[in-house]
Design brief:
heterodimer; A: mainly alpha; two-stranded antiparallel sheet; B: Ubiquitin-like (UB roll); binds iron/sulfur cluster; binds FE2/S2 (inorganic) cluster
Chain lengths: ~230, ~250
């Protein structure tokens, strides 16, 4: 076995992959939420549709999107590998456990939270991403150019209460996942330092609230304004 | 105090085992937890029954032998060793559940006794410094900054009790291993084997079947010696930099 495969098979190597893919997905979320803020512009979706075209055609964004797919898949595969390993490390459990006295609920349930987010992701991708790439999307013209009217798709979708509810609840789970994942990724990378760790933790706590709240406010805004 | 003890009994490694409930009376609040178990065992011996087996040695919080999972926490309700836990931490009439450490790498030998030689093998894999013997060096011949010496001493406090593994939802041994790696990586004497040590100790830790850390921090919260998870971050740095820069292919 080469040293590379050996390292990637070690617990620390697997954790490293979880941390790196997780951090990349945090970057992705940051970009995703910032771009989608255009939904609030109140211009009938013009800015959003132009932005969406840019995001699907720009070659640099293409590379980023492939990195995102790889990160999602890597994060899932390695989480399964690690969970299996961790489950087998304790074949007989305790009759009584007071885990809540020594750790947070989110930190102990990252796998459950991640699975819920994955289910959400499937619904989300099916509804928007797949439609945008391969579905029938009505066109709209701004100036000379034709654009896919994704804003219309989004506004139609979020007229359905159940979908709005699903999005809002899922963002809650995302928040809990991030509340542990953000700082945890830095710890795994070995970045634990007296000077910086308090800031990393504080940013993580702010991030895990701000980003999911912004995301959740989008379907709510559309639902209540349309 | 009158107590009800729900204790894990298991004849040997292959026995399935199960809980047995014992009432104990006349327990003083000043007794240590192990003394309370001594009282129970005397009663059992007088009745001709097999006493409850549990590990202990120093009974002063320094050897790390007294591994009991009490009421859902390693070493019981306080952040200390079981031998330093006293019955005043419990209430009269309480039912106390006592289990062995649970981890694949710590198989039960009998009752509450587990085999922790996995820890020894992690140390054997690299937790040492190969020193050439010779005359005793003068004090302070090797300058070590106080801050570094303090960090190394903090890490060296680990007594290998295994509470970190017991507390961790993944039965991970990373707090223990990282304390041992840190202790030597911080000091000049540990530099010679620094990279190989990190690689070998992590490899042995994995080979023993311990889980992977998910940074819950349960280990740090339960460690009787207050070993910090900053050591785990240091171990990660040591390991990642070792694998990319060492000569070991
Ligand atoms: S790190 Fe703490 S809990 Fe783990 S073995 Fe050492 S002293 Fe015990
Ligand atoms: S018996 Fe030695 S630490 Fe408890």
């Amino acid at each position: 076995m080469s040293w590379v495969t050996k390292t990637l098979k070690s617990t620390l190597g697997r954790k490293l992959i979880m941390a790196l893919t997780g951090l990349f997905l945090i970057l992705f979320l940051t970009g995703h939420v910032s771009g989608n803020l255009l939904l609030f512009k109140g211009d009938g979706g013009e800015a959003f549709n132009i932005y969406a075209k840019f995001m699907t055609t720009n070659p640099a964004v293409k590379i980023l999107s492939y990195l995102t797919y790889i990160s999602v898949i890597g994060h899932i595969i390695y989480s399964i590998l690690l969970t299996q390993q961790n489950k087998s490390a304790r074949p007989v459990g305790y009759a009584e456990s007071k885990a809540s006295t020594n750790s947070t609920w989110s930190s102990r349930n990252m796998g459950v939270l991640g699975t819920i987010i994955l289910i959400f992701l499937v619904v989300h991708l099916q509804g928007f991403w797949a439609k945008m790439h391969w579905g029938e999307v009505p066109m709209v013209t701004y100036g000379e150019e034709e654009y896919k009217n994704l804003f219309l798709i989004v506004s139609e979708a979020f007229k359905q209460e159940w979908l709005v509810a699903l999005y809002v609840v899922s963002m809650g789970f995302l928040g809990f996942h991030l509340s542990h994942g953000f700082a945890s990724a830095f710890q795994t990378l070995g970045l634990n330092h007296k000077k910086y760790s308090p800031a990393i933790k504080a940013i993580g706590q702010a991030y895990c609230i701000v980003v999911p709240v912004l995301f959740a406010s989008m379907p709510l805004y559309i639902y209540f304004t349309s | 105090m009158k107590l009800t003890l729900k204790i894990w009994r298991q004849k040997n490694a292959s026995d399935k085992g199960g809980f047995v409930t014992y009432p104990v009376d006349h327990v003083s609040k000043d007794m240590s937890f192990l003394e309370m178990l001594d009282v129970l065992n005397e009663q059992l011996t007088e009745k001709g029954e097999d006493p409850v087996h549990f590990d202990h040695d120093c009974r002063e919080g320094i050897c790390g032998m007294c591994s009991l999972y009490i009421n859902g926490k390693p070493h019981g309700p306080l952040q200390t060793t079981t031998c330093q836990l006293h019955m005043r931490s419990f209430n009269d009439g309480e039912t106390i559940t006592i289990e062995p450490w649970r981890a694949k790498a710590f198989p039960v030998v009998k009752d509450l006794v587990v085999n922790r030689s996995a820890f020894d093998r992690i140390i054997q894999a690299g937790g040492y410094v190969s020193v050439n013997t010779g005359g005793v060096p003068d004090a302070n011949e090797i300058p070590i900054p106080k801050t570094v010496a303090d960090l190394a001493m903090d890490a060296a406090q680990c007594i290998g009790c295994g509470a970190c593994v017991a507390a961790c939802k993944n039965a991970s041994a990373m707090l223990f291993t990282s304390a041992k790696i840190s202790q030597l990586a911080l000091l000049p004497q540990g530099q010679v084997e620094r990279k190989t040590r990190a690689e070998k100790m992590v490899a042995q830790m994995d080979a023993e079947g311990f889980g992977a850390c998910t940074n819950t921090g349960a280990c740090e919260a339960e460690c009787p010696k207050g070993i910090s998870i900053t050591n785990i971050a240091r171990m990660n740095r040591e390991y990642f930099s070792a694998v990319v820069s060492s000569e070991n292919v």
